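Working notes for the structural subgroup meeting. M.R. asked for a predicted model of this chain before we commit to crystallization trials. I am recording the input and output together here so anyone reviewing the notebook later can reproduce the run.

Input as submitted:
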Amino acid sequence: MNPPHHAPRRRWLRQAATTTLALALPGLASSARAASLNSGPERALAFAHTHTGERLSLVYAVGDHYLNDSLFSLNHFLRDHYSGEQGVMDPRLFDLLHRLRLELGASQNFEVISAYRSPSTNEHLRATRAGGVAKRSLHMDGRAMDIRLPGVPLADLRQAALSLRLGGVGYYPREQFVHVDTGPVRHW
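Returned structure, recorded in token form:
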């Protein structure tokens, strides 16, 4: 068995390989639903991170191709804000957000509350918060984001995400965010 200090590197290499494969073989992921997300030649997103104060606005895909430099910037921007650890975000999550903006007719920046979460951060949050943090959270796989959209009522953001049927949707009105992910279609 390898020493424990190799585990984060192996996890990062596994995630990097998965992203590289997704970028190198975009045709493999083209289903009717994925094709419906690609409405137009360029897909862009804009974010403001509520914990780091950083902002990011970029084109992340053109047609069926994700832009490597943009994905790298997004991975850094959406890093674990507790530890600084960077994960590899699922590009389908960006397509989901892009589609959500189109559905709402919104042009505002998404406010990011949480995106990538390292396993150690996830476990710490589970131990210190009374519920709301899954043991096997999709945040740890770069497949989930907690967001809000200024000027859009939270209930409307939730309803739009539910209507897309592209993954999980969690509604947290007390904390003022909606969770979206690229996992199975479900809601809570």
